[in-house]
Prior knowledge:
- The protein is of the alpha+beta class.
- Helices cover about 50% and strands about 20% of the residues.
- The protein has helices at about 15-75, 75-95, 100-110, 140-155, and strands at about 115-125, 130-140, 155-165, 175-180.
- A hairpin with a 3-residue loop joins strand 1 (about 115-125) and strand 2 (about 130-140).
Amino acid sequence: MIRTNLSTRPFYNERAVRLALIAVALAVAAATAFNVSGVIRYSRSDTELATEASHDETRAVDLRKEAARLRASVDPRQMDFASAEAHQANELIDRRTFSWTDLFNRFETTLPDDVRITTVRPRIDRDKGFVIVIGLVAKSVDDVNQFMENLETSGAFVSLLSREDHVDDQGLVESTLETAYVPAGSRPAGPGPARPAGARGAVRR
């Protein structure tokens, strides 16, 4: 006869099953939290990008309005004048009629011993062509006048004017001259250009 003790319960590994279920639950919770955080992060990024895009569109509209206003305020005559000056300057450059070396060589041959050039500023004038503004320092007004006479005698400088002159703290004469400059390559053959009457302004004593 088989004898079995039915009063004891069969043994099952319930603890291992519970631990496995807890691990699965934790993994699901972690994955859910990661997904939720990703959704929130991307949502914020999308909102920021949309805001920046809106600001950029508003800025673009403002810039287009400003450009239209500036185009409307431009004087066509000023643009034509600037275009003519640029065209003339390009022609002179293309023909290589202006040479800094030639200009400074002429200064060297006409400059008195007691005169020192401090600045040279060339520009293009629609009527006169090249205009040179010369800043200089001299010991006396006689030296400045001598320099002006030498420039005119060279034939390359016309319509010579003294725009400003004064005596500095050291007793030196600071003067600013303006003259039309006729480069060697653009001067007609023959005697030098005639000086307009009253073109030269002598330095005041």
